[in-house]
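PROTEIN DESIGN WORKSHEET
SECTION A - STRUCTURE
LENGTH: 371
TOKENS:
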């Protein structure tokens, strides 16, 4: 038995005979994919890139960062924590009710699922150590644009409240210390401050011990990443040493007062004990700083938009080019399969008379071979 060979002319002949089937199959498959594209729900996405400056974490009393560390990774984690806190479940519930996004109401079994889906569509991703991208994807372009702007406003509001609350707490500490130093009273943190001072100092020392444990763990992490002479390592060691001195001495209030004190004698360079005057100066500066912060609810000094969110005119799904390519591939595959099936069926149903006609010969008879 000789080898079976398919010649190009045979292929062209098959395509010619079944060109109607091939064209119909291609058209049906191509049209089906295009119809899916037309009927598919549109998804739109808007993006903004927000920058949070390191000055936001500045402690105005001691001129250093609140976290007492300059490690970029830790500061980035703190920024991400602020963003996720501002854009959490409460934000999702408020926006879902405002823009009628959810199909269920609070208390329904599927309500938490819709909250989770909303937060999944609101993506927070780091771009650099100080910059984060905010993306939201949804079905309605107007709602998508509104929600991304709402997210930016929510971040600014949350950071504003956090910053003002921190300054107010520092301000209250200052006022308390000023009240305790009237009339030549001893240093804040000593047992002679107020009735019950022993209990307060004991409680403050417990806080110091807890803070020392936290800082010692941070120091271990820093020593794994940096050398002993690195500024962050040295700063952490100094902070731990000061806290241990405070534990042995007057407690947390005395430690905070020491951190803020900047006194020098021009002739000898020794420290001058003038607590009340220094605290008054610090109170005045902090009061000004607090008033400035309260007049800037947008946090323009700390938060800037690297990339402004644009109105989403073009859907991210479905994409026309992708569907056209898919329709073309599906149409070709459908045409090939339909031609192969048509050829197989026509040969299976070929009668002697039809076969003779196809070959251009005259039929004289049929000879049945014995089985």
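SECTION B - SEQUENCE
RESIDUE ASSIGNMENT:
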């Amino acid at each position: 038995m000789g080898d079976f060979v398919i010649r190009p002319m045979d292929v062209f002949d098959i395509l010619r005979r079944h060109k109607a089937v091939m064209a119909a199959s291609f058209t049906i498959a191509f049209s089906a994919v295009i119809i899916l594209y037309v009927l598919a729900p549109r998804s739109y996405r808007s993006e903004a890139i927000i920058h949070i400056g390191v000055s936001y974490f500045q402690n105005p009393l001691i001129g250093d960062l609140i976290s007492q560390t300059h490690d970029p990774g830790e500061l980035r984690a703190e920024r991400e924590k602020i963003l996720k806190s501002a854009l959490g479940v409460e934000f999702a519930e408020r926006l879902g009710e405002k823009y009628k996004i959810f199909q269920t109401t609070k208390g329904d079994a599927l309500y938490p699922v819709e909250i989770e889906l909303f937060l999944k569509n609101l993506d927070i991703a780091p771009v650099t150590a100080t910059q984060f991208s905010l993306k939201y994807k949804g079905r309605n372009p107007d709602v998508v644009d509104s929600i991304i702007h709402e997210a930016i406003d929510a971040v600014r509001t949350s950071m504003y409240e956090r910053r003002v609350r921190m300054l107010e707490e520092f301000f209250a500490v200052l006022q308390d210390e000023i009240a305790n130093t009237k009339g030549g009273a001893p240093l804040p943190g000593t047992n002679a401050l107020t009735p019950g001072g022993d209990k307060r100092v004991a409680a403050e020392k417990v806080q110091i011990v807890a803070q020392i444990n936290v800082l010692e763990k941070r120091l271990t992490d820093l020593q794994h990443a940096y050398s002993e002479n690195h500024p962050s390592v040295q700063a952490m060691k100094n902070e731990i040493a000061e806290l241990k001195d405070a534990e042995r001495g007057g407690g947390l209030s005395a430690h905070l007062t020491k951190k803020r004190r900047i006194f020098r004698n021009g002739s000898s360079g020794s420290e001058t004990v003038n607590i009340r005057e220094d605290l008054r100066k610090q109170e005045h500066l902090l009061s000004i700083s607090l008033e400035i912060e309260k007049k800037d609810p947008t946090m323009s000094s700390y938060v800037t938009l690297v990339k402004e969110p644009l109105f989403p005119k073009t859907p991210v799904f479905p994409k026309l080019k992708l569907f056209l390519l898919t329709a073309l591939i599906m149409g070709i595959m459908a045409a090939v399969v339909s031609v192969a099936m048509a050829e197989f069926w026509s040969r299976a149903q070929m009668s002697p008379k039809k076969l003779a006609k196809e070959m251009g010969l005259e039929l004289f008879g049929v000879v049945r071979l014995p089985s």
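SECTION C - NOTES
The first helix runs from residue 8 to 17.
Strands lie at 44-52, 58-59, 64-65, 122-126, 131-138, 303-307.
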